[in-house]
Amino acid sequence: MNDADFSWKKIIIPAFGPSVLFGIGNGAILPVIALSAIDLGASPAMSGLIVALIGFGSLAGNIPAALTTSRHGERRSLIGASALSVLALILCLVANHAAILALGVLIMGLATSVFYLARQTYLIEAVPVYMRARAFSTLGGTQRIGMFIGPFAAAALMHFMGLAGAYWIAIVALTAAGVLSFAIPELEAQPRTRDSATPKPGMASIAHAHRKVFLTLGSGILLIGAMRASRQIAIPLWADNIGLSPTATAIVFGLVSAMDMLVFYPAGKVMDQYGRLWVALPCTIVLGLSLLAIPLTHGLVSFVLVSILMGFGNGIGSGIVMTLGADASPAVGRTEFLGIWRFIADVGTSAGPFCLSGITALVSLGAGIAATGVFGFVAAAIFWHGLPHARTAKKGRA
């Protein structure tokens, strides 16, 4: 991308429009998958397992997603992911058995990994390095906005159509994402690395060549993923533990989501102008402190304040995983590197709730939540030693 030709106006719709629509689709169906499974005769435990398949599909799909995106390019991969998601949703909609629903949810997870990897690679090419963090923070923010809108849009249609309304909202949103991806041009101002005569490295060689980065900074983003996933469980469980009603818990979630969405762009600007460490440290430390503090709350006011603090910590970290991955990725084999990077992050997302549940079963809920908070300080130490401390030199217009 030629820095002199860069303009936010040129990329705002092609870069972020599909992400908002994809977020709306995911946000619409996530609250109703378990209910659909129960309607099809699944037990509560089996319903929870079916919901978890979307995360498992994303985890399992990261490496194939990297190979697909590397071979077919970002734009075609976006279109394909949208089409695959629509097919998965139709399968969920017409399912007459829990197994068919589970298959649809699993396919949705696979498509999600392709979509987000292609989106990340697309932005690396479209945005100059000196504005990279703002771009990825905005990408993370638009995904959050979509996830926030989706449940409300689904609820409106479900009032008339029942659970099917949520799937129809998702189908429309993801079809629109595919159409928009089809309509936008490739943002390529120069020959791409993958088109050069340089031999293309495989996954194994990329993993070996960059093993130090994966073991250091990769461990940090794994811990961020674990904390982010754990907080989504910690908030409702502790709310129930202190006697809050489901309605009050939902309102707390809304407040946390609102805080999450308010701070993503300022955080990206700080990363671009001062360096990644200026956001990586506050993000991990605030998340860690808030998780440690949740077991100390015993009433509505203190619980809400700590939860909002957690939303702030998560919000300022919007895009941090993608930004660090983009910074560390090589020019040759970039997509393969990012596939491994996303795999590491998703391992953390999958492992976090298991760690919380295991410690809760062995000790107590408070101990389980607090233990995940310790991850924040470990991650902060990793970033302190692994990221540059010097202020980033500013270039171009902020």
What's the short version?
It contains 17 helices and no strands.
What is the molecular shape?
globular
- Main sheet characteristics: none
Full CATH superfamily name of the largest domain? MFS general substrate transporter like domains
In CATH terms, what is the fold-level topology of the largest domain? Answer: Growth Hormone, Chain: A
* End-to-end C-alpha gap: 17 Å
- Strand and helix order: HHHHHHHHHHHHHHHHH
Strand elements, count: 0
Structural class by SSE content? mainly alpha
CATH top level class name of the largest domain: Mainly Alpha
Work out the helix count: 17
**Average residue-wise pLDDT:** 86
Provide the domain count.
2
CATH architecture of the largest domain: Up-down Bundle
As a whole number of angstroms, the C-alpha radius of gyration is 20 Å
Fraction of helical residues: over 70%
Low-confidence stretches: 189-196, 393-398
Strand content: under 5%
Keywords: Cell membrane, Membrane, Transmembrane, Transmembrane helix, Transport
InterPro entries: MFS, MFS_dom, MFS_trans_sf, MFS_Transporters
Subcellular location: Cell membrane
Membrane topology: Multi-pass membrane protein
